[in-house]
Structure formats: structure tokens, C-alpha cells
Amino acid sequence: MSPLIEFRGVTKSFGGPPVLDGIDLTVEAGEVFAVIGHSGAGKSTLVRLVNALEKVTSGSVLVDGVDLTTLSERGLREVRLGIGMVFQQFNLLRSRTVFGNIAYPLRVAGWAKADRERRVTELLHFVGLADKAWQYPDQLSGGQKQRVGIARALATNPRVLLADEATSALDPETTAEVLRLLKRVNTEFGVTIVVITHEMEVVREIADRVAVLESGRVVEHGTLHEVFTAPRERTTKRFVETVLRARPDADGLAQLRERHPGTLVTAQVRDGSRVGAVLSDAGRHGVRFEVVHGGVKELGAASFGSLTLELVGADAGVVAVVAGLRAVTEVEELG
Amino acid sequence: MATDWNTLWPVLLDSVGQTLWMVAATLVVGGFLGLLLGIALYITRAGGIVPNRVVHTVLNVVVNIVRPIPFIIFITAIGPVTIAVVGTQLGTGAATFALIAAATFGISRIVEQNLVTIDPGVIEAARAMGASPWRIVTTLLVPEALGPLILGYTFVFVAVVDMSAVAGAIGGGGLGDFAIVYGYQRFDWAVTGVAVAIIVVLVQVAQFTGNRLARRVLRRG
Q1: Same domain for A273 and A145
Q2: What's in the keyword line of the UniProt record (chain A) (predicted)?
């Protein structure tokens, strides 16, 4: 893999304090790279630097080895032909049909009429909207609009697809459908995708690597697995917890304790951590257990999560079970 | 004194013809120039497609100076320019020139206001596709704002009919002049009434057509 997009010491300000501050990031060709952050963290600005809809204040952005800061407006338009973009509000042309919307970038790129028609038809089938070709955007549902947006972004066979909160205006079911489509774009066409989102669930579904943006800085980045299983920063931990209810918060713990007088422990669950095996042996120590909180999700190819357990039995037995858990995974005693 | 319709009838027909000519010429020529000026105002504004503070300020000030001048004053004040362009400052041609000039500035504002309603996200999407400002102006702006623009131009039609009634002040004729000379000044309410009725019908037809067109365009978009 080779870097397709590079941020080198990028700073961006709109006159006031910097919106982005000292960004160094590399996106490899063929990967799905997610940037997660709360609103105002600067992620929409960050993604707009890749197709130069915004210009850096200092530093440089390289796409396919070309430093965008050295290009004229005309040169940037050439680069933009090779970068598709999908938007939260879809941004379809209301005056054009689905067909017309997908054909628009092909007109911009100067494709001949016959080629345009062939390509649009191909894309309509890919996104499953062949029967909607002559409808107008206002006649479509949100999920259909975003599929048109994706088809339009892919029209000119770009190497890079930028998805700016592409699923944030959609309901969970439609979100999953659009994410599956994006994943297909990545695997079937080898398109590198940069996903901007504030939802960790989106990152979990689709990303290979992820960067966490906070107040214009990258506070943490790594592979999906690294960031989910060993988050270092508080912001990252919070994001991870939105997907995996890692351990009960203070209120939740107080409520659990009222109903569960036994010993409460939170055990991390990973592939091969054999938490289940330890628990099935608990009976031999005269200990009963109950799962009271938590969740396990798949993360790429691996499973990951945590379970909070109530252990009831003689002190010695409980200590033995906790020791058994400690031998296979990380355990936190909640008392 | 009974109204002598035998003599008045040809005059009335002439007046209707003059009004229709003045309004049509103003809408076509002034409508086009106003569209260009309105687009120029819109794209040069801060955050626009080709922001240019100097050009925008100049255009803005000129439009603001011309637009509030009452047309009865404008049509006489523009006299020297009318003579330079049309060759005379009297007659239907001269009145039409003044109408076009005034309408251009008025229409430019209506065009600008309608273009402002275009979702900036759509323009951003076009830029992200590599579209040049020229392409955005020619293929995106007018189609995206077409519905509101049609309603805007319908409004302008009514305003131009209203303005054209003043043409009589410089011998431009038209229905307004007819109503004043043969109706008001002769205390002949029947003549005034007929002139008014024709103008009302004209405006109704225009408004009805404009509404229908706009609805058709808006329904798909």
C-alpha cells in the first residue's frame, strides 16, 4: 500500500483561532479511513482540504503525490474530477432527474453523450435505482437520494471518495444499507474512501483505520482494532463506549447494586479470551454468576466487547473465579 | 355627452398595441439584461462563486440609486440618454427605452433574491465535481431557481404594465395614456372603465400563466 492522501503539518483558520492545527495524517490507497469527532472538531473542514474546496492556511495536502497548494484553480478542477464527494444533505440538483444528476459530473468531465448514457445506466444498476432514472430527487426517500449521491460521486471513476457525514441524515436501517453500499464501492472498485462521521457505529461498520479529531487536532489514530480495543484518550474512550456499553456509568452501577448484592466485575471479551470457559467452571467453586450489563460486537474479523457479571458465592470461591478471569483477560472489580 | 366609440375604437386598439409592445419589449430585453445583472450581483457577493468586493459594491450602489426613483421622474430624467440612444425623447420608442432601463435594475434585484434561495450545498457539490464558475452559472443557477424566477418575472410583468401607464408623460401612448386623455380629462368614466378592464384582464392572464408554469416547474423540483 502507498499513501494516496497525505496531510503534512496542516493548519487551517478562517481568520480566528485555528480550526485545524498541525494535522499529520496519511490515507493509504484502497483503505477506508474514518475521521471521527464531535461537531465543531474541524472534520468537515479537514475533508474539504482533500479536494481543495477549502485551502490550507499552512502546511500541505498531497493527493497521489501532487501537492494541492502548488496548483492553480484550473489544476485543482482537474484533481477534483478524480475525487468523488458525498454529502450529509445529498446536495442533488432538484431541477434534474436522477439520470441528469448522475450525468452532470460526466458533462463537466466532457464525456460524449453515448458514453454518458452507458455509464449512468451502469451506475443506476450498481446502486439499484434503475427504475428511478426519470424521477426527480424530491420524489425519492433519503436512502434513495444518498444512493443517487453515491452514484453521482462515482460517475467519473474517481480513485477517492469523500463521505461527509453521508449517513447522518438517515435512519439506522437506511444507514446500514448506505454503509454496505460504500463498503462495496471500496471492495469491488478499490476506491479509497475517507469517511467523516460523529458516530462510532459508522466507524465500526466500515473503517479500516480511524483518526479521532478534537478541537482541530488528531488526538489518536490507528487501526480499527487498536482504537476500539485500547483507546488511550478520554474522547476516544467515550466514542468507543457509545458502541460498546463497556461498563455501567455511576448511576447505572448504583441501580445494578440495588438489584444485585453479589460481587460485580467487568471482564473484557476478545476473540480467544475464553471468558465463557472460565465461567462454566464457576460452579465448581460454588459460585453462581449472572450477566448484568455489557455487549459484544464484531469488529472487522474479530469480536470485541465487555461483560459485567454478578458473582454470588463464598468469598474464597468468588476470589478463585476472579483469578481465573484475570488469567485470560482484563478484569475490573466494581465491588 | 355620449361616448363616440366609432372614433375611439381605433385609438383604443392602437393604445392596446402600444402597451403590449412596450411591455413585451421591456420583458424580453430588460428581462435578459436584468438576469445578467442579477447573476453578476449574486456571484460577486461575499462567499459567492467568484467573490469580488469592488464589482459587487459598484453594482449594488448603482442598483440602489436607480431603483427607488419613481418611474414618472425616471422617464423624464433619463431624457438625455434616451436622445443619445433612441434619437428622440418622445414617443413609444423613447418610453420603451426608459422602461427597459428601469426594469433592468428592478429585475436584477428579484433575480438576485431568487438565486440566494439556491442551496449552497448544491453549488458546493458542483465545485467538488470540478465544475468551473462559468459552468455553474450557465448550467446550474437558472435551472435550480427556475420556479421562483418564473414567479418573480410574473410579478415584474404586472409592475411593467403599471409603469407603462406613465408612458403618456413623454407621448408614448398606451392604455394608461388613453384612460387619462379620453377618460379622466373628459370626465368619461365609461372610457376609463374600459381601459381599466383591459389592463385587469391582461394582468390576470399573465398571473394565471405565470402561476401555472411555476407550479409545473416546482412540482418536479
Answers
A1: no
A2: Amino-acid transport, ATP-binding, Cell membrane, Membrane, Nucleotide-binding, Translocase, Transport
B118 touching A (Cβ < 8 Å) = no
A312 and chain B in contact, CB less than 8 A: no
pLDDT above 90 covers a percentage of chain A that reads: 62
Contacts of B139 in chain A (CB under 8 A): 104, 107
Residues B27-33: contacts with CB under 8 Å, at least 24 apart = B27/B103, B27/B153, B27/B156, B27/B157, B27/B160, B29/B100, B30/B99, B30/B100, B30/B101, B30/B102, B30/B103, B30/B104, B30/B107, B30/B160, B31/B103, B31/B107, B31/B153, B31/B156, B33/B100, B33/B104, B33/B107
CA-nearest residue to A85 within chain B is B128
- What ipTM score was computed for the predicted complex, to two decimals? 0.85
pLDDT digits 0-9 by tens, B133-179: 999 999 999 999 999 999 999 999 999 999 998 888 888 889 989 99
Co-location of A107 and A223 in the same domain: yes
**A246 pLDDT tier (thresholds 50, 70, 90):** low
A-chain residue closest to B218, CA distance: A95
Closest CB to B131 among A83, A92, A108:
A108
> Is B48 within the bounds of a domain?
yes
pLDDT 10s digits, A127-167: 999 999 999 999 999 999 999 999 999 999 999 999 999 99
Please give, rounded to a whole number of angstroms, the shortest distance from the CA of A237 to a CA of chain B.
33
Position B4 in a domain? no
Q: What 3-state class would DSSP assign to B155? A: helix
Q: What is the mean pLDDT of residues B91-101?
A: 94
CB contact (8 A) between residue B135 and residue A78: no
Q: How far is B144 from chain A (nearest CA, A)?
A: 5
Q: Which domain holds residue B55?
A: 10-220
- Which range of residues forms the domain containing residue A42? 5-242
Our count of domains for chain A comes to 2
- Distance from A153 to chain B by nearest Cα, in Å? 8
A107 contact residues in B (CB cutoff 8 A): 139
Residue B2 lies in a domain: no
Residues in chain A: 335
Mean pLDDT of chain A: 90
Count CB pairs under 8 A between chains A and B: 68
> Which chain A residue lies closest to B140 (C-alpha atoms)?
A93
Model pLDDT, residue A334: 82
